[in-house]
Amino acid sequence: MAAEFEGRVKMHFLLRVLRRSLVALAAALLLTANANAAGGTFRYASVSEPAPLDVMLTTAGVSLVIGMHIFEALYTIDSHYQPQPMLAEGETVQDGGKTIVITLRQGVHFHNGKEMTSDDVVASLQRWAKYGVRGKLLFVEGSSVEASGKYEITIKLPQPNGAWKNLLAHLEGGPAIYPSEIASKATDQPIAQSDYIGTGPYMFKEWRPNRDIEIVRFDGYNARTNPGDGYSGKRVANFDSIQFIPVPDVGTRVSGIQAGDYDYAETISGDLYDQLSADSSVKVVKAGAPLFGLFFTNSKAGILKDNFKLRRAIEMAFCRNDALRVSFGPQALWNAQGSIFPPGNFWYSTAGTDKYNECDPAGAKALAKEAGYDGTPIRLLTSTNYQTHYDQATVFVKEMADAGINVQMIVVDWATLLKMRGQPDQWDMFITHHGGPPDPILLTFLNEGYPGWWATPEITALRAEFTGTADLTQRKAVWDKIQELYYEQVPAIKVGDAYSFDIMSPKVQNLVSPLFWPVFFNASFN
Amino acid sequence: MWSYALKRAGATAITLVAASVIIFAFIHLIPGDPIYVRLGDTATPDQVEAVRHTLGLDQPILVQYFQWVGAVLHGDLGHSIFYDEPILSVIADHAETSVLLATITMIWVLLIGVPVGMIAATRHGSWLDQGLSGLAMLMASVPTFWVGLYMILIFAAWLGWLPSSGFPSLFDRGGIANLRYLLLPSLTLAAPNAALILRLTRASMLDVSREDHVRTARAKGIRPWRVVTHHIFRNALLAVVSAFGFTFAALISEAVVTETVFALPGIGRLVVQSILQRDYPVIQGVVLVIVVLYLVVNFLVDVSYRFLDPRVELQ
Description:
Strand content of chain A: 15-25%
Radius of gyration of chain B: 24 Å
Order of helices and strands of chain B: HHHHHHHHHHHHH
Number of strands of chain B: 0
Number of helices of chain A: 15
Shape of chain B: globular
Number of strands of chain A: 21
Radius of gyration of chain A: 27 Å
Oligomer: heterodimer
Shape of chain A: globular
C-alpha cells in the first residue's frame, strides 16, 4: 500500500515537472518567435564582394546596397523618384538659383554618438566636391558651401543648377554625410573601415573578406516622422543585424533561399524567372527601375568619330527584341522602348524614338553606303564579366553583318575594358549598362569627360540650357530636345529596358519596393 | 640528410627569386587597371591618376618590383588595394578555409581512394574491379560544379540536412560544429581526387604484384592479405604518396570552382577575384605563398621516400 502511494506521489511529481516543463518550453518558443519577428539576423546573398563602402567614391552596386543602410544624405528619393528631405529639414533658393540655403534636422546623431551639425555637412560636401564621383556635377569652379548657422548651410553656385536637389539625393557616388573629423581628413582614398560612421538606421560592425559584412541596428537612430515612401520618410531598423554574404554562383543563391540559409538573394538569371515565380518557397522581387545596355560610339577618334550617318545606319540595323530576348529571357523582364527613361517616369519622352528599333537591315545598308562606309572593321569592346553584355554584343555583330557592316568584337575582361576605353585609338564602340538615375544630368553619355566624349556644339549648348534653369517644365522641354539630338547624333545606342529580379524568403514582409537598390529598413520577418 | 636539406634550400631560394620576377612581371604586363575597377564606371581620368599616384602605381615597374621584394624580405607582403588590410591578414583569413577543406577532402580521398584501389587491384579483372574502375572514371569525368550544385540541391534544399554554402570560421559562434559547412564541398572535391588515387593505387599495386619478391612471398606460403599489405601495397606507396602531396597542394590553391559554388572564403577564390580586380599586391602575395607551399610539399614528399623505402638515397 505504502509502495503504491509512493508510486502515485512520484507519478504526480513527474507529471507536474513535465507540465511545468511544457509550459516553460511553450513560453520560450513563443518568446523566441516574437523575438524573431521583431529582430533576428537578415542574411543577404550578394553576387560579389563589394568595393569599399565609402559611397562618395564608388558607384559599385553592392557597396550602395550596404551603404544605403549606414549613410544618409541631405535628400533622398521617394517612390516617384522625386527628391525629398532626409537629413535636411527644408530649403530656400535665392538669387535666381545661385544661392541655396538648407536647414538641417536637429537631434540627428552619428553612430559615434555625436550630434550632426552644419560643420559635418560642410566638411562632407567639401570632400564630395573635391573627390566625390559626382561632386563636380554640382560644385563647378567658383562654387562654395559654408555653415550659416549651427543647423544651416549655404551653397553658392556661379550658375543655377536645376539638378541640385537630385544630385544631393543620389547616394551613388553621392554626398553622404560623415562626421566632420572623418570627412575633413579624407582624401581621394576610401575612408578606413573604422570610419564607416553615418547617421543611418544600421551601423557598420565588421567586414570579413569573402565571408560577410555585418551591420547592426543603431539604437540612437532618430527617424523622420513622415510615413515611409520609397527611400524617404520614416526608417525603422527591425532586424538586429544584417549580413551581406558574397555568393557568386546563382544556383547556390537560389538553393540557399530554398534551404533557408539566406533571406534575400540578388540578381537571379532571367531563365529562372518563370520557374521561381511559380515556386511557393521563394518570393520574386522585380526591380522598380530598369537597367539598359548602351553601345557607346567614339566621338574622339576612329571611323565613327563624326560620321553620324553611319551611326544612324548601325542604329537602324539593330533589332532590340532579339538582343533582349537572348540576354534577359522572358518578356516580363524586358521592354524594347526607346525613351531613355521608362514609361511613368517624369523624364519619359518619345522625342526621337521613331528611330529606335527600326530593325531594317536593307535600309541600314543603303544608309551606310551613303555615309561612305567601305567595310572597314568597327572595333567593339565587350567583356565576359557581364554575360548580358556579351550576349547583346554577339547578337549585335550578327545583325550588323546582315546589314553589311563589319563589326569586330574585342572580348576582354572588365578591368581591361575599363582601361582600354579610356584610350580613344583603341576602340570604335564599347558596351556597358546604365541604371535610371533620378536626373538626366547623371546619364553618362551626357558627361563629356566619359569615354565616348560626346561634346558637339549642339549638345554643349543644350546641356548648358538644361542645367541653367530650376524650372521643371522648362527642363523637361530641354530634355526632349536632348533626346531628339541623341537619336540624330547617336552618341550611344540604347538596347532596351531590362528589369533584373531578386528572390527572397516568404517570411520577409514589408520590403520597400527597390527603386535603384533593395533596402531593408522597415522590412521584418513575419 | 642535412647536406641534402641544404642543397634543396639553395635550389628553393633560386626558384623563389625566379618565381617573384615571373609573378610580378605577368601581373603588371596584363592589361587592366585596379584604379578604374575600384573607382567605378564614372571615375574621371584626373581622379584615376590621383589615386594611381597615391598608391605608387605610377612609378617605374622596376622601382615597384624592388620595393615589393624589399618589403617581402622584411616579412611585409604589402597592403590590399581593395580590402584595406595587410596581405598576410587577408591570406590568413582565407587559408583557414582552404587548409581545412583540403584536409577533410584528403581524409575522404584516403578513406575512399586507397582501400577501394586495393580491392580493385586484388580482384583484378573481376566484375568488381570493372565496376569500381568504371565508377572511378565517372567520378573523375563529372564536373565538380555540377556535382556541387546537385549536392546543394539534394542535401540542403530538399533534405535540409546540411547548410548550402558559406563557412563561418571555427573561431566564430558554432566552433567546431561549423565543420559541417565543409562536408558537401569536401565530398564534391573528393570525388575526382579519390578516383585519381583509386586508379593510381590499383595500377601501382598491379605493377608491384608482378615482381619477383611478391611471387617469392606467395611461394613461401605467407597469407594472401599479408602479401597484399606488406609486400605489394607498401612498395606501391611511393607513387601514391607523391600524388597525395601534390593533390593536397593543388586543393589549397586550385579549388576555385568548388569555392565559388559553395561560396567559401578560400585561397582559390581570393586569387581569381584579385585577378579580376587587378589587386596586384594580393595576387603577388598569394601566388608567392602558393609557390612556397608547393616547394615545401615537394620537399616533404622527397623526404618521405626515405622513410617509405630505405633503399632511396637522398643526395
